[in-house]
Design brief:
154 residues; alpha+beta; Peptide Deformylase; five-stranded antiparallel beta sheet; three-stranded antiparallel beta sheet; 2 helices; 8 strands; globular; binds nickel (II) ion
Length: 154
């Protein structure tokens, strides 16, 4: 496994649409392993492949209740509404409130190409929405209702 560099806001790649994964091969598995390591080293809850410079529809998530790999993910159902604070490893130093569904259902392939269904509520629902937005070149700051200052330097 290898740590990959996280692309920061200002780099045009973050605005591009990621392409569908069609090969579930060793190269994909290497990408997933590297993304997992990068996610944990960065103390993030989610990471999309575009954030490590790869325009493929691949996301890794761990909101504290287990690690997930989502390939070619799609939201198939959503319910309710929440307004909570969000941040992003590619947008360091900024946090803000966004409006997201309270519950979402996501359909995605695993690293072997098998389709699975996941449900998320609260933080996990936000995380699914935030990471899937990355695959279409959308950043949380695009839909931010209000900027929130979480920490200030002395
Ligand atoms: Ni992000």
């Amino acid at each position: 496994m290898a740590l990959r560099n996280i692309v920061k806001v200002g780099d045009d790649i973050l605005r591009k649409k990621s392409r569908e994964v069609t090969k579930f091969d060793a190269r994909l598995h290497q990408l997933l392993d590297d993304m997992k390591e990068t996610l944990y080293k960065s103390n993030g809850v989610g990471l999309a492949a575009v954030q490590v410079g790869v325009l493929r529809r691949v996301v890794v998530i761990d909101c504290g209740d287990g690690y997930l790999e989502l390939i070619n993910p799609e939201i198939t159902d959503s319910e309710g509404e929440q307004e909570e604070v969000e941040g992003c490893l590619s947008v360091p130093g900024r946090n803000g409130i966004t409006k997201r569904p309270m519950k979402v259902t996501v359909k995605a392939q695993n690293r072997d190409g098998k389709w699975c269904v996941y449900q998320g509520e609260g933080l996990k629902a936000r995380c699914f929405c935030h990471e899937l937005d990355h695959l279409d070149g959308i950043l949380f700051t695009d839909n931010m209702i209000k900027e929130v200052v979480i920490e200030c330097e002395e």
